[in-house]
Amino acid sequence: MTWDRVAVVERQLDDYLAHATPAERRLDADALISAGSSLTAAAAMALFEDQLASRQVDVASRELKKTNRSFYTIGSAGHENNAVVGARLRLDDPAFLHYRSGGFVMARARQLPGSTPTLDTLLGVVASSDDPIAQGRHKVWGSRALWIPPQTSTIASHLPKAMGLAFSLARARRVGVTSGLTDDAVVVCSFGDASANHATALSAINTARYAVRMGLPMPLLLVCEDNDTGISVPTPDGWIEATFGNLPHLRYVRADGEIDEVWDAVGTAIAHVRSARQPAFLHLRTVRLWGHAGSDAEQSYRSLPEIEAIEARDPLLRNARRLITTGASTPDELRDLVREARARVMAVAEEAARRPRLQTTEEVTAPLAPSHPDRVADRARAPLATAKERRDTFGATLPEDATAPTARTLAGAINAALTDELLRRPELLVFGEDVGRKGGVYGVSVGLQKRFGAARVFDTLLDETSILGIAQGAAHIGLLPIPEIQYLAYIHNALDQLRGEAASLQFFSSGQFRNPMVVRVAGLAYQKGFGGHFHNDNSVGALRDIPGLALAVPSRGDDAARMLRGAIAMAAEDGRVVVFLEPIALYHERDLYTDGDGDWLTNYPPPPDVLLPGEVGMHGEVEGDADLLLVSYANGLRLSLQAAKRLSEDHGLAARVLDLRWLNPLPFEAIRRQAADVGAVVVVDECRATGGGVADAIVADLAEHAVASGLSSVRAVDSFVPLGPATSAVLVGVDQIVAAGVAAAGRSRHAAARS
After folding, report:
1. Which of 249, 535, 588, 619 is labelled catalytic?
2. Are residues 269 and 399 in the same domain?
3. What is the mean pLDDT of the segment spanning 206-233?
4. I need a surface site. Which of 178, 315, 457, 751 has the fewest CB within 10 A?
5. Given pLDDT bands bounded at 50, 70 and 90, which one contains residue 2?
């Protein structure tokens, strides 16, 4: 008994074509292959050729793997009828594809003369740097010319951004941003029956239906390619139709049977989405041949009779029968096509295997985090709104005027900066739960919707996954989204939308696709009288772990305004994903040392003043000699300034205080310069001790460069934040900073004396 099922399936098609009897009458190319169908003989033959090319790519991939010239293989065999979807959609219909989309890609590429989809796919299979989309970083379906953004393999994680793009098409037109797509373009997203159960898929589908209920356009074609199983776990019979077949605000279309029946069903679904601007769920019945992937031992969970029954449903075999019995083709013609495809694809595979691969760190990481500071600075400073435009928007009093105290808190400065940016950049969208009419839970976005309208400042449903999906989709077509996640703890509900999707897009598309955004998040601890852990989350470790993601954390109002402009300019110029983390406890803080001193208020810096990564803030004993350097951010900056005052008054120690401002990338060079000048360093990190913040990275860098003789850190306890006064037992306090500062200065003096 052999388990080389590839040869079995190939031979099955050969045997049929060797013994098939041609139809009595051969159809003309433009003749319909069946009564009532719109599929012509020529279109049916083109579909078969594309399906055959996809199948032979799968065969070639496995042959390459046998000789260690390719890597992990996951094929499209059995799913080739998705070629019908590729053929019936247009090139300007964005496509977010799941990993068994070979037929779709071959059929769509047929619409673009000069395309080489077979070579392009196999270059990805062998991880060649000549692969035109990922350039050897991963095997993905993707093409700028074919409007197919590459997707990672995370289950269902691409559905929210497909939904977000469909949501954003009409909105882009309303705000005057040219997307490059036609007014009746639709967005297609394919996924498997197992993926349909994932919370991320259900989130996107729910939001698509919610939009229809709210009267909003949602031209989204959801294609569920149902092969009855997820790796080894069977999907219950009838589950997909029972789950999605009767949902309000979602048209359900089943595509099954002969190729002409599939053709017509697909056409019905597309026509509904295109004309009604509402979503459709296309239930495309498929089979899965040769296991989940090349490494999947299918015989461990399926018997040979079960495998043979599935192979008997091979769509290529069924479609060949249909072509011959209807007279669209002849056995001889199909035999020639099969023979030619096998030879051509294997020759292309051999060529792909000879192509170069990525070699250096620089080559691999080049598109990960583009950084052009000079261009970003220029982008941040232009275009500027005129004085009249600003006064028409803000009113008689501008936020930088001395008579506008509300704009001098952290919250007020962010609100003013958002107003200035919305005024000068028509592509900006601000959205999230409670962002619009209420103006945010903390009033940070108050008045923005009234000033700029509901097309640009709007409320979303309560779903962080959908909020970040909308942001990604909007960014794909030239909008610059500023979504808000209400609390830092809540971003973990949807973290993969940043980690696996948004931040990885430029990496896997070699910079050809991008989804620039600035994600505003209210977070960190020290918020009094509210919440406990979920409203006082003091960990940024999960965000700092995301390659390419920039993390801005302002402490003061003037810095927040400048940094927000810098973050938006980074997104606009370099396509970066930036998280703008706003310390809740400092939103409305006015005082620093004593009640009523007003020392935490700042003047609003009007445009074009900007701060970019690497620019730190220096406070305290900046001029002359200092005994100690305190390195911190956010609430820690305020605490460090209070500690510096006590160190001076009670211990005679002069402290210099460095505000990091940006936690990713960390300003290591600036920290080293200051540390070398001072000697004693205390890193004040308000986040949790073990991997929650930045102290470990800063301490390690200073130790490795041997630039501090007295080095220590103060960090929060590894605990969730409790409610009420108990917070002082786990969070960093001024007393701890003072004690650490005295000790570090002592060690530094001792080291100096010994030397």
Report:
1. 535
2. no
3. 97
4. 178
5. very low
